[in-house]
């Protein structure tokens, strides 16, 4: 079974494999896979890239082949000027016979254009390494320069230089959106709240647990949905923690940054315990021989019951919460805002950037610095929220300022 999204004459096509796995390919105007593109996508699959990465690159290559077709270019005969014109085409969509008189809004955001361009350049880099004489002029070797941050092995790379893309999309870096502590509380309370009189939780503990988990750990949504009960190590007189473990998931969510361990607060651990008790009361432990190997977040109302929770269902919940909390939380908030809020709160509370970087799962501390460079200088952020209070229970660091385990 296949489904696809049209993109001009070419399109990125989803393919359901007999094994049940899903992947993506690129179909041409003849509805057949485009050979060079499929060869590169197969290379990505062999490298165990996530299905979402393959999907993104397939969409980029479908646009590239559309561009080649409109301008009657062969994929092995393109010049550096053609790649530059590709950026203009992505923005305008105008064919070779169209000369616009007035400017009009871009078809894609600059960030999307940058991703599409990066995929195409990577595609040509792959074929160049495989002996196809294309794309050699897309990268140049640079030595040194005004780089403020030097990676660990920079002294080795400096001898031969670093490869850098010649064509780049310059983007104005935007400030990552965040939620205030009060807004986080309102989102969590809208899902479930503690009834002092009845001494029990009212509402969906599962939904509250998800938002509390994202806020306290900075996990990506996919990483949270991929958690299994065996990954949650509840406190037994010591500090509770969770493990983020790369593994296959039926809904194609993955631990993007690989394995890491994150310590959590006693409050979050108790909320998880309440949720597990409710799951067992509902019979979730009786439908499987290995409860520890099942996902933490599962369907409770929809069928199939106790199956892993889908990202689309989470976004259905987000839509409902946006409506319910209109005027009390930003209209466009998403689950990823909790991750940005987590990093911002830790940095404003004085946690060293290398600890924040490891907790987020960034491969390089420079990624953290680039994303959150504005934070430590932003007095307004300090003024609108009590970040120290928000992070007081988080186990990112011990009381004496030393790191607790591999956060």
Automatic annotation (TrEMBL):
Coiled coil: none annotated. It comes from the Bacteria. Residues 174-386 form the Tyr recombinase domain. Keywords: DNA integration, DNA recombination, DNA-binding. InterPro entries: CB, DNA_brk_join_enz, Integrase-like_cat_sf, Integrase_catalytic, Integrase_recombinase_N, Integrase_SAM-like_N, Tyrosine_recombinase_XerCD. SUPFAM superfamilies: DNA breaking-rejoining enzymes (SSF56349). Residues 31-128 form the Core-binding (CB) domain. Belongs to the 'phage' integrase family. This is Tyrosine-type recombinase/integrase. It comes from Streptosporangium vulgare.
